Structure prediction request, 126 residues.
Amino acid sequence: QVQLVESGGGLVQAGGSLRLSCAASGRTFSNYAMGWFRQAPGKERTFVADISRSGKTTYYADSVKGRFTISRDNAKNTVFLQMSGLEPDDTAVYYCAARPEIFFNTARSDSQYDYWGQGTQVTVSS
Prediction:
């Protein structure tokens, strides 16, 4: 089992920045690829970004490319999502997720992930 706890969400004005964190516990964090997803009200949960277990490879949804950065600190069992240039359309509950990695390739479906956090709310005002 892997337990994931997100933090860092909040209310921010358009154009602002936030940094989300996801702390993992339970199993060896560095064995897992990590992803961030988000779910806006009334919409399905969608892929935001993912990162290989080494941290060397990352992928992003087109909607956030150039504005968001995913990173991880395996010594601290934490994955981050640095968000800048926030827009009202970024308003959502943000979730981190984990999946065992053997050979990394981007995984954009939530069914590909085994473990999920409880989510953190991000609200961007115009």
About this structure: The chain has no helices and eleven strands. The radius of gyration is 13 Å. Residues 38 and 94 are 4 Å apart (CA to CA). The mean pLDDT is 96.
